[in-house]
Every structure is written in C-alpha cells, then in structure tokens.
Amino acid sequence: MRKKRGAGPSIPADFIRLYHEFNEGEISMNKFLKFARSGSIYGFFAISCLFTAFLSTCNPFICTQSAYANESSDEIFSAGQRGFELEEVLPHNELLFTQGLSYFEGRLFESSGLYGLSCLSSRILYSTRPVQSISLDPDVFAEGCTVLGDKLYLLTWKKHELQIRDRESLRLLETRRYAGAGWGLTTDGRSFWQSNGSDSLFQRDIENFRIKKRLRVTDGGKPVRLLNELEWAEGVILANVWRSDRIAGIDPESGRVLFWLNIGDFVREESARGGGVANGIAWNEKDGIVYVTGKRWKNVYAIKMDDE
Ligand SMILES: [Ca+2]
C-alpha cells in the first residue's frame, strides 16, 4: 500500500542533496554511503536505494554517466533568442528532483524522480503545500508528466511503463508499455510528444501510445541532443536541453529550432543556492505564461514570451 504524503517528502535535505550529487556523478559512492551510515536509519534507506537501482534494467548511476560521457550540448546556436519578461517568482519545494511539470486550472502538477524517492504532486501556484501527493513504488524512477482531460500521464525512466492516473486523486488507473527510456512528455491535445534524451522527439497516439512520427530536432542543420522536459505552447514544443541554460522552441512539423529562450539568469541563481539543472516547463494558455523550474530549485519563474 502506498504511503500518501502530507506536506512533501520527509527525507532530510542533506540526504537528498548528496543522493542527487551521487546520481549526477559529482561525488563517489563511498562518500554517499559514509554520509548515509552516519545518519543511522538513512544508511539502510541509502542501501535500499542502491539495491533497487541495481535491480532495475540499468543501474542509473552508471548509465547516467556513461550515456552522456561522449555527448555535450553544442554551445553554438543558429536560431535566434526569443526575449521574455519575468512576470512573477513563485515558490517551489526544494526537495523535489523535478522531472516533469504541467499546468491545469491554477494548479501545477509535478513529477519528482530518483529510485525510492519518486513522487507525484499537485498544488496551487502560490504554495508549496500539495493539494494531492503520492509516493511511487521504489522501482519507479518518475520522469515527465502531462495532464490531458481528467487524467495525468507519467513516464518512467527505465521501466518502459506509461502510467495513466486520475488527475485529482493521482490514483493509478492503467499502464501502457513502450520501448526505450522515458524522459519528457507533453501533449498538444491530439497526440503525446515524448523525449528520450536523444535528438529525437516521438509523436505518440493518445489511446495506445504507439509511435506516429519520429521528429529529429535540429538547429542550423545540426542535431540538438539531450532533449529533456517538454511543453506544448503556442503551437511549438518547448524543450529543456539537459545541463543547458537554454530552452528550445521546436517546430513540430520540421523539427527545426525556431528560437531559444535563454534562462541562464535563473539557472545561475538556483545553482548558487545548490539547485540542479533546469528541468520543468509548464504552459498556462489562458494567461500566456510559461512556468520554468528545475531540480531542487527554490523558485518557479513565471515568464511571458515576447511576440515573435
Ligand atoms: Ca511540461
């Protein structure tokens, strides 16, 4: 039986920070375990996390580093920058390892990753206290999520499982299988769009989640790799590029990057506080607002894109 959470995860912030740094390859396993052992019950918890990770189809710690070892974001941009205005700075739960963000009628829906710590929550814009929150099974590493109608759709990283949940209760209704890794997920209302860390996006059928089209994303003719969290807005697909301070605005027909949003100021501000990479985009169509956040960020930045 899954444990429902009240005001968010109860694991200490230091533990989350070190688990994140270990996952990102920034500290060694020995250092992580040394800290965990010093925290008594968290030592058992840490070992459980590692054991679960090794039992999964691919060890996330090894896979995360090796998969990206030969890939880095190309810092040469062809498409121009699109300006924006910062409308508001909203609070964000700094413990969340944000993997997906979606907006629906005044609420943000957010998926948070890591084995043993993954959770889903919904909340109103001006509070970090969840309206609804649920912990996921320890073998689930939550990835992108999106709201469509009365359901919430959640990708899993290596489990090849799309979870379809009730939007209000977040209760699991059914699942769909898919091949490969799951990273970002969004919807245009007629199809889903999914990323897997490569330079391709996959348009998928609403009902059966089968691939309808593969879209290769390019900027100036060069592939844009490491596409991560996604959001459909104004007829284009906004995409975080992993470990980058840019959001790509992608033409869903050609795959061409039409513009870049430079969110470097937000990334630097959050990084100075110990936050991780940018990895959350949500679109409020009614007010024309894009919400931007990241892993363990303190804030959600509400921006309004300039007219093109
Ligand atoms: Ca999103």
TrEMBL record:
The keyword Heme does not apply. This is Glutamine cyclotransferase. Pfam families: Glu_cyclase_2. Keywords: Membrane, Transferase, Transmembrane, Transmembrane helix. The keyword Acyltransferase does not apply. The chain crosses the membrane at residues 41-62. GO terms for molecular function: glutaminyl-peptide cyclotransferase activity.
